[in-house]
C-alpha cells in the first residue's frame, strides 16, 4: 500500500507539473492576419449546346419509344462529327412524366430527351447541331476548359502571393515593425466564370438547317491567399 501511494503521489506531481507548464506558454503576440487575391481574365473556350425533343401521348411506353428513336438517330448523326476535346457527345436528361387534369387524374404522358454537344470547336458544334433533325437547340452556354484554366492559374497564383507579401510588409511597417515572417498560409482558387452561362431559346425559334452564331464571354480565374504573419522589430 505504501508503494502504491508513492506512485499515486508521483503521478499527481507529474500531472500538476504538466498543467503548470501548459499554463505558462506565452500567448502569440504581434501576429497579423491578412488575405489577398490574384485575378486573371480569360476568354471562355468551351461551348455547351443542349438539343432537346419532347413528345406527348396517352401511353407512357409509346412516348418513351418515340423519344428513344429520336435520340438514337441524333446520337448516330452527332457521333459522326465527334472529335475528343473538340466535339464530345453525351446524352442529357431523359424522363417521362404524367399529365394530370384539375382533379389529379392522369390524362396522358409527356416526355423529354436531351443530347449535349460540348467542346472547343465552336464551328463544328454549331454545324452538327443544325444538321440533327427532330432535336432543336434548347440551351446554349459557355464555360472554361480545364486546360485553359490551368494555363492562367499559375499567373493568378503568382499575383496573389506577391500581393500578400506586399500587403504584409506594408502593414508591418505601418504598425512600427521592420519586417515579418510567415506563420501559416493557405492558397485556394476558383473560377468566377459564368459556368456555363445558359440562354434559353424559344421553341421553334431556330430553323432546322440554320447555324446558330455564338460568341464566348469571359471567365475570371481567382486565386486567394490567406494566413498570418509574425511582425518583427
Describe this structure in words.
This protein is α+β, with helices and mostly antiparallel strands and 233 residues long. The chain has two domains: 95 residues, Translation Initiation Factor IF3; 98 residues, Alpha-Beta Plaits, CATH 3.30.70.2970. The protein has four helices and eight strands. The strands form two sheets. The protein has a five-stranded antiparallel beta sheet, with helices on one face. Strands 1-8-6 form a three-stranded antiparallel beta sheet. About 11% of the residues have low confidence.
Helix-strand string: HEEHEEHEHEEE
CATH class of the largest domain: Alpha Beta
Helix segment count?
A: 4
Question: Biggest sheet, strands in spatial order?
Answer: 3-4-2-5-7
Strand content: 35-45%
Count of all domains = 2
Radius of gyration, whole Å: 31 Å
> What composes the largest sheet?
5 strands, antiparallel
CATH topology of the largest domain: Alpha-Beta Plaits
**Residues in helices, as a percent range:** 25-40%
Helix-strand category = alpha+beta
User: How would the global form be characterised?
Assistant: elongated
Q: Count the strands? A: 8
Residue stretches low in confidence (pLDDT < 50, at least 5 long) are 4-14, 194-208
Averaging pLDDT over every residue, what do you get?
84
Distance between the termini: 58 Å
Amino acid at each position: 500500500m505504501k508503494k502504491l501511494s508513492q506512485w499515486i503521489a508521483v503521478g499527481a506531481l507529474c500531472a500538476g507539473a504538466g498543467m503548470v507548464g501548459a499554463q505558462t506558454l506565452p500567448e502569440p503576440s504581434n501576429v497579423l492576419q491578412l488575405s489577398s487575391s490574384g485575378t486573371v481574365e480569360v476568354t471562355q473556350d468551351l461551348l455547351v449546346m443542349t438539343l432537346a425533343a419532347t413528345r406527348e401521348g396517352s401511353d407512357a411506353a409509346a412516348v418513351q419509344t418515340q423519344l428513344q428513336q429520336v435520340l438514337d438517330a441524333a446520337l448516330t448523326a452527332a457521333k459522326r462529327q465527334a472529335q475528343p476535346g473538340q466535339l464530345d457527345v453525351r446524352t442529357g436528361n431523359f424522363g417521362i412524366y404524367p399529365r394530370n387534369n384539375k382533379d389529379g387524374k392522369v390524362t396522358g404522358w409527356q416526355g423529354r430527351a436531351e443530347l449535349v454537344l460540348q467542346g472547343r470547336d465552336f464551328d463544328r458544334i454549331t454545324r452538327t447541331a443544325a444538321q440533327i433533325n427532330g432535336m432543336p437547340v434548347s440551351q446554349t452556354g459557355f464555360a472554361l476548359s480545364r486546360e485553359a484554366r490551368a494555363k492562367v492559374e499559375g499567373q493568378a497564383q503568382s499575383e496573389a502571393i506577391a500581393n500578400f507579401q506586399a500587403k504584409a510588409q506594408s502593414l508591418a511597417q505601418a504598425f512600427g515593425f521592420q519586417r515579418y515572417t510567415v506563420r501559416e498560409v493557405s492558397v485556394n482558387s476558383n473560377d468566377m466564370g459564368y459556368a456555363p452561362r445558359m440562354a434559353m431559346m424559344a421553341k421553334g425559334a431556330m430553323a432546322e438547317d440554320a447555324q446558330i452564331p455564338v460568341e464566348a464571354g469571359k471567365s475570371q480565374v481567382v486565386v486567394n491567399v490567406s494566413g498570418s504573419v509574425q511582425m518583427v522589430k
